[in-house]
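Re: that backbone. Tokens:
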């Protein structure tokens, strides 16, 4: 029973990171109807920036802040300098360009930092906090929950309580009508990409210490898990991204804890296939799809 409780808390912590990553995918999908397959490579680049700063001055929080700022910048640059000029008549165009961006970013990272794994130290103590003699969580788990919760609540307030959030939602759901009403749809789209890249950067920095470390391809498996989480919840649902992330995190934690870590990629594939077969739109998909 103690093992099950520990794996549950560990799964929720991992799931929170997947939820943040899935939320980044959902933000771009809602804004541009594009699955950003370069999200993982973009997150890797921000993670390298974060740990370069942390190693140079010993401040993890400063590196964390730099990663978020770099995420904002790289998201805006990718949308303004690349994705805006892609013809969206064929959905494959966006996929091909995103995959090309993945190859470009991983190649640049490899040329600058090399292809070997770099250790990423935990910023907090790794000893588990025990309650009733049962190890439940670490200080880093608490930091993960706090960071992800802050971002989720902040985005919820942005989209429901601010004029900018209202414009972003209007630009995503009805761009032509929004233009007639004076909304700068292009600017809202850039902001959406920037926010999505910020959330992805946060997820990347958070997950690196829990995995093997920094590597140009460090986010490949993470992206697969996050994409599964987004599909589980529904690509149009931010709430679904959070729930899907927790579900995927729990599944991976139980499979790794009871059956072995080697089976976790298969578990991700099984979950993805099950959702696509039983409910292709995701658990939180609406009955009526919005027009593109």
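Recovered sequence:
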């Amino acid at each position: 029973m103690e093992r099950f409780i520990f794996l549950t808390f560990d799964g929720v912590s991992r799931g929170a990171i997947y939820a943040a990553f899935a939320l980044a995918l959902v933000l771009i999908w809602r804004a541009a109807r594009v699955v950003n397959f370069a999200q993982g490579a973009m997150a890797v680049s921000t993670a390298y920036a974060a740990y370069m700063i942390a190693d140079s001055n010993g401040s993890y929080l400063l590196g964390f802040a730099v990663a978020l700022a770099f995420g904002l910048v790289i998201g805006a640059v990718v949308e303004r300098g690349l994705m805006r000029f892609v013809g969206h008549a064929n959905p494959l165009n966006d996929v091909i360009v995103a995959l090309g961006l993945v190859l470009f970013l991983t190649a640049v990272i490899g040329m600058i930092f090399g292809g070997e794994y770099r250790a990423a130290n935990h910023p907090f103590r790794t000893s588990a906090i025990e309650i009733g003699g049962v190890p439940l969580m670490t200080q880093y788990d608490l930091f993960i929950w706090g960071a992800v919760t802050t971002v989720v609540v902040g985005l919820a307030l942005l989209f429901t309580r601010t004029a900018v959030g209202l414009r972003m939602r209007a630009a995503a759901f009805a761009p032509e009508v929004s233009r007639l009403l004076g909304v700068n749809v292009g600017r809202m789209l850039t902001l959406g990409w920037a926010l999505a890249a910020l959330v992805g950067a946060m997820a990347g920095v958070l997950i690196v210490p829990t995995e093997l470390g920094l590597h140009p391809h460090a986010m490949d498996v993470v992206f697969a898990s996050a994409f599964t989480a987004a599909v589980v919840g529904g690509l149009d649902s931010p709430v679904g991204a959070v729930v899907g992330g927790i579900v995927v995190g729990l599944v991976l934690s139980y499979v790794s804890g009871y059956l072995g870590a080697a089976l976790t990629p298969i578990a991700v594939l099984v979950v993805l296939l099950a959702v696509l077969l039983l409910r292709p739109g995701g658990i939180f998909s609406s009955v009526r799809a919005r027009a593109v």
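The beta strands are 129-131, 134-137. The radius of gyration is 19 Å.
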